[in-house]
Amino acid sequence: MEFVIITGMSGAGKSQAIKILEDINYYCMDNMPPALLPNFAELCKSSSKEVNKVAVVADIRGGIFFKDLFISLNELRNKGIQYRILFLDASDEELVKRYKEQRRPHPLSTTGTIVDGIHDERISLEEVKKRSDYIVDTTNMKLGRLKEELLNIFVKGSITYNLNITVMSFGYKYGLPQDSDLVFDVRFLPNPFYIEALKNFTGNDKNVQDYVMSFDVTKIFIDKLKDMLLFLMPFYIKEGKSNLVISIGCTGGKHRSVTIANRIASMLTAENYRVLKIHRDVEK
């Protein structure tokens, strides 16, 4: 039996996640007290009806009962029930924005602000996040992208590394992305902006991609960048890094950076890394 425990930050998308798993034939239960996990797992395992895939949400809404989680996890192991933990996360800024848009109180902010509640919850979930099998950062994810991510993990089995990688193109004229971990400047490449037939297209268009990739310097750069990134990724994972932002910049963020970001994102995806692609300034 496949047993999935969904947890993580309030507002990060756990309700959407369990609906997605329900759509792909998981037997789902939301807001389960952690102390009931072992009994529930055994009930599903011994049911007269065949239950092969189970997903439950256990989170901070359980209040003091959430402290029973690690006891229950050990009990599951002792009973021979294998489980996987999916942890959904998002930036503090995004979580505050979501709560304000929904006009809902944070479950831990009854006597304080939303920011206080998020801070307290992050501390409470620190240990379970470390023990999670998958960490998905939904900060920049729409529902369709979250569904694709979960299908990659639980259906295709193509996600094997617990590292969220964001590959972001940007324009230097609009400033550096503040959350960048690695920044690469591709303004040394020939600029399609000065080609009249290409200036109104972007790096998402094949004619611009063909132009940028037609130069030997571009191919050499891609090869060297690929070698460096594939060398670095295992060490980031070993050190426990769960989120990595790779930013690719050109002058305006429309042509060269978008082309290179698309190539790097495709390359990392082909290596079974979890990749989110963002073109920050392509529409400016």
Care to give the gist of this entry?
It is built from ten helices and nine strands. The chain has 284 residues and is of the alpha/beta class.
Keywords:
284 residues, alpha/beta, Rossmann fold, 2 domains, five-stranded parallel beta sheet, four-stranded parallel beta sheet, 9 strands
Structure description:
The chain has 284 residues and is an alpha/beta fold. The protein contains 10 helices and 9 strands. Strands 2-3-1-4-5 form a 5-stranded parallel beta sheet, with helices on both faces. It has a 4-stranded parallel beta sheet with strand order 7-8-6-9, covered by helices on one side. It is elongated. It is 40% helix and 18% strand. It has 2 domains: 2-154, P-loop containing nucleotide triphosphate hydrolases (Rossmann fold); 164-279, no CATH class. The model has no long low-confidence stretch (mean pLDDT 90).
Q: What is the topology?
A:
Layout: E1 2-8, H1 14-23, E2 27-29, H2 37-46, E3 53-57, H3 69-78, E4 83-89, H4 92-102, H5 114-124, H6 126-130, E5 134-137, H7 143-154, E6 164-171, E7 182-185, H8 206-213, H9 216-238, E8 243-250, H10 256-270, E9 274-279
Parallel strand pairs: 1-3, 1-4, 2-3, 4-5, 6-8, 6-9, 7-8
Helix pairs in contact: 1-7, 4-5, 9-10
Widest β-sheet, arrangement of strands:
2-3-1-4-5
**Helix fraction?**
40-55%
In percent terms, what proportion of residues is strand?
15-25%
How far apart are the termini?
A: 49 Å
| Count of helical regions | 10
Structural class by helix and strand composition? alpha/beta
Mean pLDDT: 90
Q: How many distinct folded domains?
A: 2
CATH topology of the largest domain: Rossmann fold
Largest sheet: 5 strands, parallel
The stretches of 5 or more residues where confidence is low (pLDDT under 50) are none
Tell how many strands the DSSP assignment holds. 9
Rg, rounded, reads 22 Å
* Envelope shape: elongated
CATH class of the largest domain: Alpha Beta
Let me know the CATH homologous superfamily of the largest domain.
P-loop containing nucleotide triphosphate hydrolases
Give the CATH architecture of the largest domain: 3-Layer(aba) Sandwich
H/E element sequence: EHEHEHEHHHEHEEHHEHE
